Sequence to fold (475 residues):
Amino acid sequence: MEQLGLDDDGTDLRTVRFAILDVETTGAASGADELTEVAMMVVQEGRALAHLQSLVHTDRPIPPAIVALTGISNELVADAPSARTVIERTARLLEGTVMVGHNVRFDRSFLGAAADAAGITLPEVPVLDTLTLSRVLLDGEVPNHRLATLAHYLQLPPPSHRAMADVVTTVALLHRLIERAGALGVTTLEGLLALRRPRRSGADLERQARRLPHRPGVYYFHDAGRVLYVGVATDLHDRVRSYFSADTRTSVRRLLRRASSISARPVPCDIARPLTELAEIQTLRPPFNQVGVRRPRTRSFVTPEGRVIAPWPLNQPDPPPSISTCFDGDAHTVARALEEAIRHLQAEMIQASDDGEYERAAALRDLGALVATRVPTSLLHEVHREGRRLGLFDPRCDARHELTGPEGLLDLGPDDPELRSYRALLVLRTIAERRDLILDDELAPLVALVRESVRFRRGSVGAASDPSKGLARSS
Fold:
């Protein structure tokens, strides 16, 4: 039997051949039930070297529930190879590999039972379970560690209760888990096999929270050098301590179980603080900030004079010409034109609600709120691309803040136009909540439009007409 070459420094994962395995069966008991399908793929460094996919003949009746789940019936396996033939082929492929599966004990027990019945000795190889590995490396990020759940969370090919489809999913999962392990400094097979879920001291974590200052800022939960979660607080000490007492959400319990340390960064400015949090999330991509959050599918569209409006929701049609013609010109021209267009939209919305056309009223509300935020966002982003400075004076911190241009606040975070557009939208919404800021002349009409969007969405149309639709008439 070919042996893995293990040296004193461990076996480099790039040299390891992994044999990813999945089986389908007539039931759950390996001593009584039988194989119906076996699939295996041997991979090394991301390349497929060999594969096996075969139905397995069985005379045992396949229960209707199994047929419904897998699509494998007795008629389908009537002319399939015998278990002995399939096990012989499987044993040859396993030589010199590491056996991998998701809940691999199940697959291994059925292979072993079939091999014993056929008088075949399977090679003794290391065994790696992606179920165990995901519980170590993805602890707290997912509600459970079923293969379908992990595939959805990590955007892998979905499993389908057929052996080769599940193997393909498990291969992709293995590669993702190896990437995660690499971020922890694990680059050898021995290190991967030795990974265990660490024991955390909740008391130690809470002591770290108690040491945080009573100051506004951004806080971080860490694990083994990786940021798990980024949050923002007006009082770092009180907010982070609340995780250990007042906050009983399941996701919080998972976070506390996973985290090993807490740190914080004071950010006294009300304008910079939420923007810093978003920029850090965009840069670090902490897993607990991503749970339940999908990046919106967006696009852009171009106005008659060539201005790019983005990000625009992919499922939202282009605005009608009566609206889109308002998007060209300088900030003051656009603001005046859009304010007039939004007034017309609101009148149409109220009329549609009064006529009982609630879906149309909601669509008009969404369009008005959308153009009143996305157009100012695009204009601010345009100023930034041109390298022009645009900013404000904040009397609370007695300081001027540059939003655009060199070293402007929009440069916090990744240099990605779409991500920067979301930062521009956030900063405009943050500014719109304040009435004491002294804004540059070109910035003021953009902020006024964002305030209009908030009023438009919150005050829209008549709850008196149909309260169940949640549309409240503006006064």
Notes: The domain at 13-193 is CATH 3.30.420.10 (Nucleotidyltransferase; domain 5). The chain has three domains: 13-193, 202-287, 298-469. The radius of gyration is 29 Å. The first helix runs from residue 64 to 70.
